[in-house]
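step 4 of 6: structure.
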Amino acid sequence: MKRTADVVIIGGGIVGCASAYYLKKKGVRDIIVLEGSDSIGHGGSSRNGGGVRQSGRDPRELGLAMTAVQKFWPTLSEELGRDVEYTQKGNLRLGKTGAHMKKLQALAERCAAGGLKVDMITGDQVREISPWLSEDVMGASFCPTDGHANPLVATLAYFLKDVELGVHFFTGAKVKALEKVTGKVRRVILEDGTVFEGGDIILAAGYDSRRIMNTIGLDVPMTPLLDCALVTEMEPEMFPQMLGTAAADFYGHQTKHGSFVFGSESGLEEFMEINDPNDMSLQHPATLGASCRAIEGWIPALAKAKIVRSWSGILDMTKDGVCVLGRPEEAEGLILACGFNGHGFGTAPAVGYVMAQTVIGEKPVTNIEPLRYERFYEI
Amino acid sequence: MKVIKKELIVAGAGPAGLSAAIEAAKSGVKATVFDENAAPGGQLFKQIHKFFGSKEHKAKIRGFRIGQQLLEEAKKAGVEVVLNAAVIGLYPEKEVLVQQGDEVVHYKGDAVLVATGAAENMVNFRGWTLPGVIGAGAAQTMMNLHHIKPGNRVFMLGTGNVGLVVAFQLMQAGCEVVALADAAPRVGGYGVHAAKVARTGVPFYLSHTIKEVEGRDCVTGVTIAQVDPQFHFIPGTEKHFDVDTVCVAVGLSPMAQLLKMDGVEMDTSSGGFVPKCDESGATSIPGIYAAGDVAGIEEASSAMIEGRMSGAAIAEYLGYLDHEARAARERELDASLESLRQGMFAPKNRGKKIEKTEEGIAVSENLLTHGYVADDEISRFPGFRKQVGIHPVIECTQNIPCNPCQDACRKGCISIGDQITSLPISVEGSECINCGMCVASCSGQAIFLVEEDTEPGYGEVTIPYEFLPLPQKDDRGFGLSRSGVPICEAEITNVRSSAAFDGTRLVTMKVPMEFIDRARFYKKA
Amino acid sequence: MLDIEEKLKEIGPYVPEEDDDLLVCRCEEVTKGEIRKALHEGITTIEELRRLLRCGMGLCQGQTCGTLTRRLVAKELRIRPADVTLATARTPMRPLDMGIAGNDRGAGEDLAKGGLR
């Protein structure tokens, strides 16, 4: 069994899989990916709303989001040989009150400052884009270059391409600890005692990254947060746009398949005790009802849509709301890619690419300096 | 949000759920049972056949009557049964979400029992999604609950008890069953169930399975073929049947989703099909129980006992029953359950090839490969006896936990003894009075009354009969062999019915003496 | 721990079979061939199959095809069916109208405001 590689990636989610892919493309020969669960993309990669969104982003990660949309998503299906269902029909962020509209206006201005075009539109214009939305909708911000994709397929598309290219994957490989060798982070010790060694180690294990980096004395201030969503049966095509609200009471989209995926919550979920961040079975009894009521307020037409499933996942929420990327100064050999705060899917291709650039010492395609680990020392 | 507090919440008003609620309620627990159907009873109300077992297992009583008794008992015990109420989720702190009409109601239980039963398995052959391919359980629902004939000409895949019982019921409903097949080399269900189907003339194809179901918009035919021990089709062995319905009876899978979603530990050796639980159904989460098929597929009779055991355990958990009383009740129930888990079909014998009965008699190979005991095999079993004058001939050749026949005969003509699985013996020298109770009480329809030389060259055979139209006295037709082939002329000399026979008619036919040991069914000319 | 590369070597490449066009998941119309092919490309679990192909993700949530898929996975990956983990179970147990799901605040309460019903 293969135990050493140029790069060992911890985490078989979309960030890990994308990083492996771009590393291969950059000519790195030997790559190992370790996935703790039995399935690739078992964490946030399969448990998100599929948004490929730039609007509403923190300026520190807007560059990543725009890079992803401009350079990666449009050609991803072709590149990976599988339809990742990328749809660039815009993001509607809806408002019902004057306060909502003010909030949307501020967000739009912030985007404009970062070079992203976001339009403010009226309620009637909103209903022209989508007649299914409630009469109560007063207006919206509309970012025409935003969109969505299928996170489940996108993650596995990277994975399958990686396998084809010769990336070595191990599933059920639960990481116990990292270990330094002569001052450099080099070893990955599994719970079953297996030891992997890498010239560089990329840590992209979602919230579990914190526990793993703790074993060599690093820490990122982050907390786990339960994230819930519901999925309906397939419906006729109604919304090609990504939807969100100024009230932040739901987000979602209709997939190419026809089903709706909506994320929403009752507000009680964050108080649930998360004993194991890898346990995805937690669900709160109030979520489903509250979610449906929230969605009903915006899209009354979906009353008869049947829910076939609900799911939950764990968000890795950092202190300042954005991810941690790059090489921490105090841990040579380690590269971090974690703390995506529940919006890492859309940026994942760009993050993967930047990870590959970081390994080989290339200048990143977009500035990731503000996302560095050391920022928490400055708080 | 309003959350309604309950003491014991039971999901599923089938045999296990109702039994548990009754048992718990008898100790004082306030039990509420939810069921998504419009009528309670689960599968029981589809079971129009007589059950096996002993008296305590309600043997020889038809399933739907057991369901009625259970409902009556539940009512008396003060169990609240809520219908049209689908349990859609089980959450931490034993919160249960129930869809009732156009709302979802939140309940919380001090204890929760999941008794949601099982769903039918499918196999995918070419054409499996055509209208007309249905589960055997679905066919049963159509016939016995909704009184709709599933089809006219039916092919049955699967020779387990479900396949055999439903094949028989299809014929009772007026369908023609053209054949049964099973990929396994041997009949999976009780031999007596197979024999009552075979003697009507339905062929059994073992080591055969469906190659293709034909039809454009609905089923018009089925082609089966023989399979080798690795279950690969053997070319050239195809057989075609014109049918409009294909019934699939290839096993059941527990519906344990509620337990899974609540984080109950599942049994990994089964790949997570069933929860890990002790004999009382207690799962890894205190206060959450599982009973019946959801905890492992068995018969309704065992589900009812399992339910009782869970009910007693829950009563103790909630403080209504002290430990000793519960233990005593559990011992009692355990003994009853153990007696059902004996014999050739015991869970511990699954997949084993059994060569000899407990008595050391070679089993009937023909029964296992063709669905009926061959003429030259029957005489080695203790239920077969030649005697002057009328006497029972019991063609029960496998060790199954069932003994109503012994009690049915007040003259001591039939003996099983203390071991419930022993083969019934037709007792030498006993005096049969032709009451017919044994014939009607045999859930396997395996008892016949035989009287030789009623007139020169002729004798009479009395058979159990559960089809319509009933033969009439003086009707003339054919005596059929155990394989259902007409072998002789037969004349009906008597047709009896009685409340005590519970729907089974006793048909007596006169046949030539040389066929007295071979004619086991009647067909009108 | 599963070494995907080793597993793929062990099971060999995808070889088409005569009945690859058979439906396995009838809700989402996923064929045996699609599933077999995915297994020979590196998919090793029912969860991954569901994500990639949607099999078992429809109205019945795999109640019908779960065991069929499990058998297929076991056969292709050369493991015991019992070692193939079934998909997780989630609320709701039965398909549920969003309007009904949202109506869960207790009978008799005023649900008039923008009620989905």
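step 5 of 6: annotate
 - The first strand of chain A starts at residue 4 and ends at 10.
 - Helices of chain A lie at 14-25, 59-80, 98-113, 123-129, 151-165, 208-214, 287-298, 348-360.
step 6 of 6: archive
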